[in-house]
Design goal:
Layout: H1 6-18, H2 21-28, H3 32-46, E1 51-52, E2 60-61, H4 63-83, E3 95-101, H5 105-119, E4 124-130, H6 132-141, E5 146-150, E6 158-166, E7 169-172, H7 186-189, E8 194-197, H8 200-209, E9 219-223, H9 226-234, E10 239-242, E11 258-261, E12 269-276, H10 283-291
Parallel strand pairs: 3-4, 3-5, 8-9, 8-10
Antiparallel strand pairs: 1-2, 5-12, 6-12, 7-10, 7-11
Helix pairs in contact: 1-2, 1-4, 2-3
Length: 299
Amino acid sequence: MLYLSLRQLEYVVAVARAGSLTMAAQQVNVSQPALSVAITQVEEHLKQKLFHRRKGTPVTLSGFGRLFLADAQALLSEAARLESPGGLSQRRLERFVLGVFEDLAPGYLAPLLRLLRTRFPEIEVKTRVATFEGLAEAVRSGDIDLALTYDLRLDASFHRDLYAQVSPQAWLHPDDPLAKREEVTLADLAGRPLILSDQGLSIRHMLGLFRPLGVTPVVVHRAASTEVLRSLAANGEGVGISYSNPVAAMSYDGKPLARVPIADTHAREPIVLAYCGEQPAPLPEIRAAILGTDIVFSS
């Protein structure tokens, strides 16, 4: 708990500037005895004399008092800035937290981290990888400043900057007849056994893509990650569908697999940079830097 108040610091600064208890008391609108008591209380707490006070001579600062005055003036200036309506807008963050949806992280996190550390070397950049729900909650609570994610069920409290539009990919065994096509449609996949992500929002979104076709597809596997999904597809367990688009044509367990874009326009999904509320500098600059990048992992 702080013992000294801002008012007491103002008294010290006033006496130092005026060189007189009487004149300082008039300036801060208190009685001279009350001001003298306040200064004595500060000195007793610090166990140091701030002023040399002798009858008939101006009040002067001690050596310790000169040091204390500099810090007191700086603290009062900072306090004045804090209570000013526009004061915070003059400050710049020294630490920034970027959140990335877990399926996007393998392709986007490292390039964005390198970009931000190059463009903003004075900022400490932290990262956090999470689910849709985890990112949304962390942005709302202020634990994450910006989140790169799909625009799935973000409510009106979020601001969104469009980063990219991506199409889903179909992952198939190389011998599958559809594997030779340049692209496929959801109608081509509607009757096939599907492998989808096991995330609640993700699987509901994928199933919703088939709703305009009037079909309910059969989901044979709910994969815990994109790599598990790709491995299952490479081993002939069904057709995997994901928005993540790793460049490797080999599954994690060493099996070849084919990737074919899904052409339906209504299936394209925006990747957004999401945040809440007004943002202090340099977050608008950071957003502009991120939105100006061209990372093609999932495009």
